[in-house]
UniProtKB/TrEMBL annotation:
<feature type="signal peptide">
    <location>
        <begin position="1"/>
        <end position="20"/>
    </location>
</feature>
<protein>
    <recommendedName>
        <fullName>Tetratricopeptide repeat-containing protein</fullName>
    </recommendedName>
</protein>
<feature type="region of interest" description="Disordered">
    <location>
        <begin position="107"/>
        <end position="127"/>
    </location>
</feature>
<dbReference type="InterPro" id="IPR011990">
    <property type="entry name" value="TPR-like_helical_dom_sf"/>
</dbReference>
<keyword id="KW-0732">Signal</keyword>
Length: 127
C-alpha cells in the first residue's frame, strides 16, 4: 500500500519538476547563446506550462535573438495576458519596447544598405 502511494505521488510530482526544469533550461540555453535549443525548449515549456508567463518570455527572447521579431511579439503579448504582477508586466513591456526599437533599427539599416534603394541614378543605370 505504501509503495503504491509513493508511486502515485512520484508520478504526480514529476510533471511539476519537468515544467520548471524546461523553463530553466530554456533560460540557460538562451543565456549561453544556444538559440535553436532555447526555441525548442521554449516551445515545449509553453505547451507543458501554458499558464506560466515566463515560458512565453523565454520563447520570445529566443525568437528575438533569432531575428523573428513578430513571433517574439506574439509570445510577449500572451505573457502579458497571463502576468499577474505589475513588475512582471513592466518587464514584458520593456521587452516589447526593446524588440520594437531593435527591429525598426534593423529594418532601417537594411534599407540604408540596399543598393536598390539608392536615389543615385548613376549606380542604377546599368552602366
Amino acid at each position: 500500500m505504501a509503495k503504491r502511494l509513493f508511486l502515485v505521488l512520484l508520478f504526480l510530482c514529476i510533471p511539476a519538476f519537468s515544467y520548471a526544469n524546461t523553463i530553466a533550461q530554456c533560460i540557460k540555453q538562451l543565456k549561453e547563446g544556444r538559440i535553436s535549443q532555447a526555441i525548442e525548449l521554449g516551445k515545449l515549456a509553453v505547451v507543458l506550462h501554458s499558464d506560466n508567463p515566463v515560458s512565453y518570455m523565454c520563447l520570445a527572447g529566443a525568437y528575438a535573438k533569432d531575428g523573428k521579431y513578430n513571433f517574439a511579439k506574439v509570445e510577449l503579448q500572451q505573457a502579458l495576458i497571463l502576468a499577474k504582477s505589475n513588475k512582471l508586466k513592466n518587464d514584458i513591456d520593456k521587452m516589447l519596447i526593446s524588440i520594437d526599437n531593435f527591429s525598426s533599427t534593423t529594418k532601417q539599416h537594411t534599407i540604408d544598405n540596399n543598393p536598390e534603394n539608392s536615389t543615385d541614378n548613376s549606380t542604377n543605370s546599368g552602366l
